[in-house]
Design brief:
Blueprint: E1 29-32, H1 33-40, H2 44-52, E2 71-72, H3 74-88, H4 93-105, E3 114-117, E4 122-125, E5 131-133, E6 142-144, H5 146-163, E7 168-170, H6 174-179
Antiparallel strand pairs: 1-2, 1-7, 3-4, 3-6, 4-5
Helix pairs in contact: 1-2, 3-5
Amino acid sequence: MAPRSDARPRRAAARQGQLLLDLPVDTRVGYRGAFVHRVVGISYRQLDYWDRTDLVRPSISGAQGSGSQRLYSFDDIVRLRVIKRLLDAGVGLARIRTALEELARQGRTLADVTLASDGSTVYAIDDDQQLLDLLQRGQGVFAIAVDPLVDELRGEVTALESSDEEDRIEAPFASEAVAG
């Protein structure tokens, strides 16, 4: 097959309202749950619960029964860390779920906004510097900038990858696996 005329690799699409980090398809990596829960700072039980309740599903490969493994993308890890930070700020899981659903309803991703919270409400600040109350209340805010979080996670994932090679698995996209 001839190379594409623009000479750029195909890009991955966001799922479940996740980030668009513009990663080339051929560099997409999957991380096992045991690695993900450690890097995010949550228990494996939390990770399992969030998958089973559709808060964050592993976008590369879900559990398919006994012996199968979940494979999370870097985007999934960022989403999980954002949720963890909101929990640490005092926001309840039900409110976090509502806020993320509202972002998705508005057609926004985490990459489109900076999240802020007062411990009760979750706000989104967009590129136009609009403050959007995702839970429809207004108070003082605590900000979580997602870009620095992504940089922080890149460093942590890279450091942990070097010590836990077995947790990193190169995996084709679901559409490629079906086609191939």
